[in-house]
Amino acid sequence: MTESVSELTVEAIEEKLQEFLTAKTKQSWDPDVDLFASRAVSSLFAMELVVFMESTFDIAIEGPDLVLDNFRTVHSMSALVSRLRPGASGA
């Protein structure tokens, strides 16, 4: 049985993000590595991340959340998902 999006742990969110990044970049990433400073990904890639995160975690990333800092590391993306996903308890 699969977990609902609201029941995903931070570790499960990070695992899904890591799987996506590994598939797209052909390398694994430490959760604290700045993906954009590493020059392994571009700002255009951030849009792919947005689409992936919205569809995978049933969230809407809009307005003030559409800043590069929310997509720099696996940890920052996981924090964004945790805050925006259904059932999240406030900001």
How is this structure best described in words?
This protein has a domain at 30-86. It has 91 residues and is mostly helical. The chain has helices at residues 10-25, 43-57, 74-84. Helix 1 packs across helix 3 (74-84). The protein is globular.
SSE inventory with pairings:
Blueprint: H1 10-25, H2 43-57, H3 74-84
Percent of sequence in beta strands: under 5%
Overall radius of gyration = 12 Å
Shape annotation: globular
Q: Give the SSE order as H and E letters.
A: HHH
Parts with pLDDT < 50 across at least 5 consecutive residues: none
Total count of strands: 0
Biggest β-sheet description: none
In helices, the fraction of residues equals 40-55%
Which class do the helix and strand fractions yield? mainly alpha
Count of alpha/pi helices: 3
In whole angstroms, the N-to-C terminal distance is 29 Å
Question: Residue-averaged pLDDT, rounded?
Answer: 88
Distinctive features:
46% helix; globular; 91 residues
